[in-house]
Amino acid sequence: MANTGIQQVLFGEIPPDYDRKKELQAFDDTKAGVRGLEEAGVTKIPRIFITPPDGIDNRVNSDVEKAFKIPVIDLEGINIGDGFSTRKNVIDQVRQAAETGGFFQVVNHGIPIDMLDGMLDRVRRFSAEPKEERSKFYTRDLTKKVMYNCNFDLFQVPFAYWRDTLSCIIAPVSLNLEELPMVFRDVMMEYSKNIMNLGIELAGLLSEALGLDQNHLKDIGCLEGLAVLFNYYPACPQPELTMGVSKHADSDFFTILLQDQIGGLQVLHQGQWTDVPPVHGGLVINVGDLLQASLISNDRFKSAEHRVLANHVGPRMSVAAFFTTSANHSSTRIYGPIKELLSEENPPRYRETSVKEYMIHFSKKGLDGTSALTKFRL
């Protein structure tokens, strides 16, 4: 559909018999996403993106912001030289961050900065390709290992958010490079290898932060699945009316996020939104629901809710790596709070569940602003 066709489908006065589902389908059928709206030069966002005022919660408390800063943890030297004292210090920092805010950033993590910058540049280049090229990958078929669309939960949530995503399942089954858009083929495997190595290191630190063996998370399958998501947030003509991504907690064990320098990522801490400021060369790490609850920590680690603001400035780009048991969420292995962490004073707070059961619930619910963990709480 041409750009003028997109505008004709999406705009106009709201008729008495307004059919939201029909409008969602019309938008999805363009296979152009919000990037298509950007290309069309829209000056008003479509109705499907308009968020009710109570969905755009802008509570900011300067005292909370001053008291709580997202920690930046230096990983240099944790395995060499004066490694024991350095590693212990890093583990203490990771423990404090995971128990309080659920978010931290890492620097000197071993992934070259030019590789990180190159990945963000690939997101820009893919989004700059003609719609006809991008739409070849546009699908909602969850069996696909490479999937491009606007909002995975477009038809589940009460309002759409201003983001397109290309998602790639990297493990446990190896990805065929021919399945990828051309622009990613020369870098994907090397980047994924670096991210997996960092994931192994972080899993070790998180395990030790819980007082467990360094290999505990790895040994129970937390790193078997890896999905990498390339996110594109165009400049929004009415950012006060919508969200880049609405409030949610991640559905994995933990996430490694590369974000550009525009900003907009916020974490909810003590009922107030706090910015996660970009650090060039740094990576944002956050605890997911499965690490907070049904897998390991029995609420000791926090899977913090977070969001991304829409912005007049753009495009904003990010690359998120999600670690889970199987990236297609089919694992039926049962997880529950680790027995070593339980006691009469600290009984299990969640029932045992499988990643498959959790993900079916999470996907059906979508990013609707509510916690997926409620269903599994005892």
TrEMBL record:
Pfam families assigned: 2OG-FeII_Oxy, DIOX_N
The keyword Iron is assigned to this record: yes
Taxonomic source organism: Stephania japonica
Fe2OG dioxygenase domain residues: 224-326
Stored InterPro entries: DIOX_N (IPR026992), IPNS-like_FE2OG_OXY (IPR044861), IPNS-like_sf (IPR027443), Oxoglu/Fe-dep_dioxygenase_dom (IPR005123)
Entry similarity comment: Belongs to the iron/ascorbate-dependent oxidoreductase family.
GO MF annotations in UniProt: dioxygenase activity; metal ion binding
Protein name (record): Fe2OG dioxygenase domain-containing protein
Keywords associated with the record: Iron, Metal-binding, Oxidoreductase
